[in-house]
Design goal:
- A 4-stranded antiparallel β-sheet has the order 1-2-4-3, with helices on one face.
- It has a single domain, classed as Gyrase A, domain 2 (2-Layer Sandwich).
- It contains 2 helices and 4 strands.
- 18% of the residues are buried.
- By secondary structure, the protein is an alpha+beta fold.
- It is flat, with a radius of gyration of 16 Å.
- α1 crosses α2.
Length: 95
C-alpha cells in the first residue's frame, strides 16, 4: 500500500491509496466514522481496473486528519489481531 496526498485543505485531506480496493477502503471508512473527531470519511474509485481509490477525510475544527487516519489504522490492527486469536483458538479446539 502506498498513500499519496492529493489535497490538504484545513481540516480535510484527500488521499490516493495505491494497492488497495473496495474491501480495505470500506473497512477504513467505517473505522474512521467510529471516531467522534471525524466529521466525514468517504472514498471513491472511478474505475476499479484503471484508478486507485481516493479517500476523503474531514475532521472537526482543531483536529488532525492525519491523526484520525493513524488512530483508525491502529484500531484496525487491534481488531484483526483479535480475530486472528479467536480463529486460532477455534481451530485448536477442533483438533
Amino acid at each position: 500500500m502506498e498513500l499519496e496526498l492529493v489535497e490538504k485543505c484545513g481540516t480535510a485531506v484527500r488521499l490516493k491509496i495505491r494497492g488497495e480496493g473496495h474491501t480495505f477502503c470500506n473497512v477504513l471508512r467505517k473505522k474512521l466514522h467510529e471516531d467522534d473527531r471525524v466529521e466525514t470519511a468517504a472514498y471513491s474509485i472511478d474505475h476499479p481496473l484503471l484508478e486507485h481509490p481516493e479517500m476523503y477525510i474531514k475532521v472537526k475544527k482543531g483536529k488532525s486528519p492525519k491523526r484520525a487516519l493513524i488512530r483508525a489504522a491502529k484500531k484496525l490492527v487491534e481488531d484483526y489481531e483479535e480475530v486472528q486469536k479467536k480463529m486460532e483458538k477455534a481451530l485448536k479446539d477442533r483438533k
